[in-house]
Amino acid sequence: MDSFEINKVLGGLLGTVFVVFSVGIVSDSLFATPAPEKPGFAIEATEPEAGGGGKKAAAEAKPIAELLAHADAKAGEAVFKKCQACHSGEKGGPNKVGPDLWDIVDRPVAEHEGFSYSAGMKDFSKGGEEKWTYDNLNHFLTSPKKFVKGTAMGFAGLSKDQDRADVIAYLRTLSDSPKPLPEAGAAAAASDASGAAKPAEGAAPAQAKPAEGAQPAEGAKPAEAQPAAPAENKPVEGAEPAPAQ
Fold it and tell me: Can you count the helices (H) and strands (E) in the chain?
C-alpha cells in the first residue's frame, strides 16, 4: 500500500471522527435540559420500619377532629400540589399513577373505577367495607407504607400535623356534597360524662341508711339498745308518803 492509500484511510477516519463529534455538539444544543429556576416536588420514598404496621402509625397520629378544627383548605390546596404528579382531583378526572381523588372522603377503599390497586390496598379495603374516613386519611397520609402494608404508593407521607389537616380539609372540598367535619372534643366529653358519677379520690363512701321497717340481714348483729334513764318519782302534791317496809 503506497502513501496515497494510507492518506486516504487516515483522512476517512479523521472525517468520521469529525462528523461524530459535530453530531454530538449539535444534539447537545438541541436537547439541552437546563435546571429549572424553581424545582418541582420530589416524590420521596422510604422503607417501612420493622415491626411497624398500621396500628403503630395510628397511635402516633393526633386525632383528626382536633387537627381539622384549625385546618385551612386554601393552604391545603398548595400542599396538594405535591400529590398532583400522581393524582388528579377534578370530577371525572383521569387516573394517573394513583386514582382520581374527587369525592375521596368516605369513599370505599380500593373501589375507584378503572384503577388497578395493589394487593396490599385490596387487603386493607376488606372488599370495600373499609372507607377513606377522615381518620384513615390522616393515618395514611402520615405514613402510607406503615398504615397500609404492601401499598404501591411511594410517597413518604406528611409528617407535619398542620399540612395533613390542611390537605384533608382541601380534599373534603373536592365533592358536590362535602362530608360533615368530625366533632372535635366529642370523645373527651364522653369520657368526662362517664367519669362524672365516680366519687372523688379519697372521699369516704356514703353510708346507706336502712329503710324504715326493714328486717336486718341474716347473721347481722342487732344494734344494742341503750338503757333508758330511770324516771324520777315525784310525790303527788298533798299525798302522804308511803311507810317504809
Answer: 9, 0
Contacts of 187 (CB under 8 A, 6+ apart): 63, 65
Q: pLDDT, tens digit, for every residue of 105-116?
A: 999 999 999 999
Other C-beta atoms closer than 10 Å to the C-beta of 79 total: 22
Any idea what DSSP says for residue 112? -
Q: What is the pLDDT of residues 182-224, one digit of tens each?
A: 987 654 454 444 444 444 444 454 454 554 554 555 554 554 5
Q: What is the DSSP letter of 95?
A: P
What DSSP line would sit under 12-61, residue for residue? HHHHHHHHHHHHHHHHHHHS--PPPSS--------PPPTT--HHHHHHHS
- What residue has cell string 500500500? 1
Axis-axis angle for helices 134-142, 161-173 (nearest 10): 130
Name the one residue in this structure whose C-alpha cell is 317504809.
244
d(CA 132, CA 108) in angstroms, rounded, equals: 6
Instruction: Note the pTM of the prediction, 2 decimals.
Output: 0.55
